[in-house]
Amino acid sequence: MILRYIGFMDEVEEVKSKIDIVDLIGGYLTLKKAGVNYKALCPFHSEKTPSFMVSPERQSFKCFGCSKGGDVYTFIEEIEGMEFYDALKLLAGRAGVELKPRRSIHYGEKEYQPSEKTKLFEINNLAARLYHKILTDHPKTQHARKYLVNRGLKKESIVNFQLGYAPRSWDLLLRFLKNKGYIEKEISRAGLLVLGEKGRYYDRFRGRIMFPINNIAGQVIAFTGRTLEDDLPAGRQVQTPAKYINSAESPIYTKGKTIYALDRARIEIRAQGFSVMVEGNMDVIACHQAGFRNVVAVSGTALTPDQLKILARYSPDTIFAFDSDSAGKAALKRAITLAVQSDLNAKVITLPGFKDPDEAIKSDPKNWQQGIKTAKPALEYWIDCLVLEQGITDVGEKKKISKEILPVIKIISNDLEKEHYLKYLAKKLAISESAVTAQLSKAKVTQEREVSAQAKVGLDYEQRVAGLVWQEKKLIDKIPTAFFGLNFQDQAVRALFEKVKHNQELKKLPAEIKSKLDLYALEAMRDLDLDEEGMIEREFEYLVRDFFERKKERTKAEFAEKIAEAETAGDRDKIKELMSQFQSAIIDGEK
Ligand SMILES: [Zn+2]
Fold first, then answer.
1. 419 alpha carbon to ligand 1 midpoint, in Å?
2. Ligand 1 center to residue 78 CA distance, Å?
3. Per-residue pLDDT of the chain (591 residues; tens, 9 = 90+)
4. From ligand 1's centre to the CA of 69, what distance in Å?
5. Which fold does the domain 257-369 belong to in CATH?
């Protein structure tokens, strides 16, 4: 333990004296006062009653369930999965203590090399500083500054959120970081490069406004880059180039577990007792700028259960303020379903007449306050929308509505709440409550799978492949024949490949299948750099290859198990037979 400190003794103590452990851990967990101590649900093991204690007096923590414990450094090492030096750097940054820069440190005989994660943090941090400097200082980026000012951003917001600009250069960042002593492999691992066709790396972000994404401790872990051209049509039709792209995932960046601006919003979420979730980075900045600082955004992915779990640490109450276009509505339904599953109290803001929060606030911040005040419980909102969209004049419409909403009501765990929504739905449909309740029990069998499919995180391989084919029809010729023999889980994917297999017109697919495929295409292309010729095709090939690789792995594992069984049984013929089956299965899979 002590050995690790050599070379940093003073700084380690200084940082420790400046950080309050209650404050630090309170940023990650909901702490409840328990006498002179605080307690919480342990983040390191799964439990229902809190056995994780924090002592302000001793500045230490201890879990009586899994017996993890220690000081501020141990906590950060454990929760962020960092090594000591990284934890020290993180906390020093927070405490405002400067660590003498050193690339390697000697202690005893050994030389200390910074861990991979440390390097990835350094790389992202340097990139953020470079992009920010270019945006704020460079004479050639006036158009970018002007764009942000026109969007209503104040200078201090640009500084606070460390916005930047990545110029249209193939290797500006690459050269900059190489000069700082990092190698291509490291920069690529940090998610900031793209591998070109000729095997050369180049900058992932070019000609884009840069939004650094921070972890909860405020360190830059990734970026969202937005095209500057604002002449893209409204809505979110798939366009070239992609309006937003994100860093690739890395050891320090998992999209599904990252929430944009949570590092800035978490204190205010606690203070106000609820969070607000919007869709875009710009919306977040507009809200914070107007003084609404409990606002965060999903970025780089559709909302995931993990993100909601993280958000719930700060408050179980959240309000969704998504865009009013059709993609926003689809995202909202998904978010509500997840919130119901996660037992979160979700509400929905409506901002009538505005396409997103940014626009509403720019028009008048009071719109926002009003929206928050009148936010509806999420499921009531959903039911109201359906009634409005479908109408309830005939029985078919009523059936349609209950078919969509009952599976969601079904997953509510609180009986009181469940009954509330059943009553609400019955009233809205002018149907007896007993009929709705009876229908609820049937909803399970037919629809539960559909709901859980909707709630699934991210996209599966098959959905991604389908999305790309849907987007780029010429890929149809490249689909390996082996693909058609597969049993696809997803209904839309199945429908698409069925049509493709029989050479039928894709236009004739049902509208709801088409809109699903639209979403898959959008999601599958989210991170692709569409400036680059043939990018969709490369992604497609990569996915197909990977898909079969994984399939092969699974087949191998299955056969290995069977063969082991046959060996135990001493059944030589069986072994022989399995071996030959195995061979042909692998070869088939490669076709
Ligand atoms: Zn524990």
1. 36
2. 11
3. 334 444 566 788 889 889 999 999 988 888 888 888 999 988 888 777 888 999 998 899 998 888 889 999 999 988 877 778 778 888 988 888 887 654 444 444 445 556 778 889 999 999 999 999 999 999 999 999 999 999 899 999 999 999 999 998 999 999 999 999 999 999 999 999 988 778 889 999 999 999 999 987 788 999 999 988 654 444 444 445 678 889 988 888 988 889 999 988 987 887 788 999 998 899 999 999 999 999 999 877 788 888 888 888 778 899 999 988 888 888 898 899 989 888 889 999 988 888 889 999 989 999 999 999 999 999 999 999 999 888 888 888 888 898 889 988 988 888 899 999 999 999 999 988 888 888 888 775 333 333 333 333 356 778 888 888 888 888 888 888 877 777 787 888 889 988 888 888 888 888 888 888 887 887 777 656 555 567 778 778 877 876 777 777 777 778 877 888 888 888 888 888 888 887 777 665 444
4. 9
5. Dna Topoisomerase Vi A Subunit; Chain: A, domain 2 (3.40.1360)
**Contact (Cβ atoms closer than 8 angstroms) between residue 348 and residue 336:** yes
How close is the Cα of 52 to the center of ligand 1, in Å?
A: 6
> Distance, CA 531 to ligand 1 centroid (Å)?
48
Distance 12 CA to ligand 1 centre (A): 25
Instruction: Report whether the peptide linkage leading into residue 101 is cis, meaning its omega lies within 30 degrees of zero.
Output: no
| Cα–ligand 1 centroid distance for 55 (angstroms) | 15
Topology of 117-253 in CATH? Answer: DNA primase DNAg catalytic core, N-terminal domain (3.90.980)
Contact yes or no for 192/238 (Cβ under 8 A): no
Location of structure tokens 């500084």: 159
The CATH H-level superfamily of 2-101 is: Zinc finger, CHC2-typedomain (3.90.580.10)
Give me ligand 1 centre to Cα 29, in Å.
Answer: 13
Q: 331 CA distance to ligand 1 centroid (A)? A: 35
How far apart (Å, rounded) are the C-alpha atoms in residues 333 and 211? 27
Task: Tell me the angle at which helices 142-150 and 116-137 cross, rounded to the nearest 10 degrees.
Answer: 90
Check residue 478 and give left, alpha or beta (phi > 0: left; psi -120 to 50: alpha).
Answer: alpha
**Residue 21 φ/ψ, nearest 5 degrees:** -65, -35
Q: Which of 405, 349, 341, 401 is nearest to 375 (CA)?
A: 349
Q: Which residues contact 270 (CB under 8 A, 6 or more apart)?
A: 26, 314, 315
Kindly list the domain boundaries of the chain, sorted by start residue. 2-101, 117-253, 257-369, 381-455, 462-591
**Residue 391 CA, ligand 1 centroid: distance in Å:** 51
Enter the pTM of the model: 0.63
Q: How far is the CA of 452 from the centre of ligand 1 (A)?
A: 30
Instruction: Spell out which residues have Cβ within 5 A of ligand 1, the ion.
Output: 42, 44-45, 63, 65-66
* CA of residue 256 to ligand 1 center, whole Å: 24
Q: How far is the CA of 200 from the centre of ligand 1 (A)?
A: 46
Amino acid at 545: R
